[in-house]
Amino acid sequence: MNEDLERPDAANAKASFGFADVAGETKQGLVNEVFAKVARRYDLMNDLMSGGLHRLWKSELLAWLAPPKSAVSYALLDVAGGTGDVALRFVRDAGKGASAVVCDISAEMIEVGRARGEKEADRLSFVRGNAEALPFAKASFDAYTIAFGMRNLTQFEAALAEAFRVLKPGGRFLCLEFSSVEVPVLDRLYDAYSFGAIPILGGLVTGDSASYRYLVESIRRFPDQKTFMGLIENAGFERARYRNLTGGIAAIHSAWRL
Ligand SMILES: C[S@@+](CC[C@H](N)C(=O)[O-])C[C@H]1O[C@@H](n2cnc3c(N)ncnc32)[C@H](O)[C@@H]1O
Predict the structure, then answer these.
(1) 4: CA distance to ligand 1 center in Å?
(2) Is the pLDDT at 2 greater than 50, yes or no?
(3) 200 occurs within a structural domain
(4) Which H or E run contains 182?
(5) What is the CATH number of the domain that holds 84?
(6) DSSP bridge pairs for 242
(7) Gap between the Cα atoms of 157 and 228, Å rounded
């Protein structure tokens, strides 16, 4: 990883990489390897793994954001935005005053995203950067989204503090992430599917089953809905709440920087 994208204190942090515990400085490099390997097949795999469900979840995220259609200017920062899925939907659906910046640490994911977003390039830009040390001035954005990115980070607290810093007063924070299944039976079916089928599918489509084993394990290590809501509140956000999607397989957390 480029030194300028590393956080100076990351070496002191402890982190999980799937079920393994690693030093903070090690995790980001491992995560970067995962996304460098899967970038070209990332969008296809999302559809295959979730049976298209991730599209509905992202639609829910943007419906809850509900950007004003007639605003003269409305700036979204989509962090860990990868191939631009959320930001592309946003600029296509929102009013003409809306613009989006995708910030992601992976050059490979950004390259795929730039190609996808060529037609929207006047309102959609891609910036390489670390969610834990964002390359933006304070109070720059009206909204901050992060979809399936948070659990890949080394220090959630640092990322949440950065989200708070770059949002304008009155700005909105939304996080879509895999979460804890809260429906009995569904949790066992989901476990069987994710540990049994997803690494095999990932191996067939991307040639890299280990990356998809990491994906499944990282979901189980991510804090549950209420714990994560506490971290959001600790970062200074107000009116924090969450909605479960598909019984808690995923959840959207929403909060305001007031
Ligand atoms: C599962 S993908 C999500 C992509 C996209 N948001 C979506 O929903 O399709 C996770 C993304 O997080 C990015 N990422 C991991 N660590 C990061 C960091 N420290 N800062 C910014 N992006 C990071 C990866 O490069 C990858 O593109």
Answers:
(1) 17
(2) no
(3) no
(4) none
(5) 3.40.50.150
(6) 253
(7) 10
